[in-house]
């Protein structure tokens, strides 16, 4: 399994790219996208070298995640999130307790890895939150249109595209990361969205004839799900 283009872009954003050597928060000489092997202070590289170092370093990080695939059977978002974590930390052995933790426990533990030299760092806290959000996000899928036998032909909701709410007071529901999307119809309501609001679709899930749209985590780190289409009527277009 390999890191997706989206996963690579996220790592680039989280790491940032510096073409002159610097010391990271842990005091280690670093260059490019967080590359540390053989780096000396005063060293400079080109953007092409930075990209090459990233590709080389990703191989090791991917192996760290891949070795637990037989236990967890990672989806693409989980793999990308953990590769980013391993790229930063070096391993996911401690995070997974060497494969003994559940997926839900891994998600819970991720936010604890936000320290360098014993100090809690805001940058690491934000990174862990971004990685956790990706980790618990359902793997992208494009929901195809329903058969013509249905009263309403459903839209082809695409991950990453922004849609408009065409209903009043559309409910936002949440579920635990460990729960299946089958729990969504009866899940707790945590808010409402006004008609005319715009929502970026991060992932979709089909529950029966209905299509549910995932809109990310709220400020309390709760998953936000909205019923976009019941199979008879579209609320988000």
Question: Could you please describe the fold and organization of this structure?
Answer:
The chain has 237 residues and is an alpha+beta fold. It has two domains: 5-136, Lysozyme; 162-229, SH3 type barrels, CATH 2.30.30. Helix content is 32%, strand content 22%. Strands 9-10-11 form a three-stranded antiparallel sheet, with no helix packed on it. A two-stranded antiparallel ribbon has the order 1-2. Helix 4 runs antiparallel to helix 7 (122-136) and helix 6 runs antiparallel to helix 7. It is elongated, with a radius of gyration of 20 Å. The two termini are 34 Å apart. The relative contact order is 0.11. Residues 142-151 have low confidence and may be disordered.
């Amino acid at each position: 399994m390999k890191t997706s283009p989206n996963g690579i872009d996220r790592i680039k954003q989280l790491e940032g790219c510096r073409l002159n050597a610097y010391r990271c928060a842990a005091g280690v000489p670093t260059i490019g996208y967080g590359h540390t092997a053989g780096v000396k202070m005063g060293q400079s590289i080109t953007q092409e070298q930075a990209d090459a170092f990233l590709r080389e370093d990703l191989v090791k990080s991917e192996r760290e995640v891949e070795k637990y695939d037989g236990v967890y059977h990672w989806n693409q978002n989980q793999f990308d999130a953990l590769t980013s974590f391993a790229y930063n930390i070096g391993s996911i052995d401690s995070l997974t307790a060497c494969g003994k933790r559940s997926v839900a426990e891994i998600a819970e533990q991720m936010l604890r890895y936000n320290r360098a030299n014993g100090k809690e760092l805001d940058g690491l806290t934000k990174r862990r939150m971004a990685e956790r959000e990706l980790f618990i996000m359902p793997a992208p899928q494009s929901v195809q249109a329903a058969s013509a036998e249905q009263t309403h032909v459903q839209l082809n909701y695409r991950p990453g595209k922004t849609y408009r709410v065409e209903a009043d007071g559309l409910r936002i529901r949440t579920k635990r990361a460990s729960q299946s999307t089958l729990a969504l119809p009866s899940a707790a309501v945590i808010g409402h969205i006004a008609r005319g609001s715009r929502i970026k679709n991060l992932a979709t899930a089909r529950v029966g004839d209905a299509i549910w749209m995932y809109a990310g985590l709220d400020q309390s780190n709760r998953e936000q799900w909205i019923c976009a289409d019941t199979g008879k009527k579209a609320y988000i277009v």
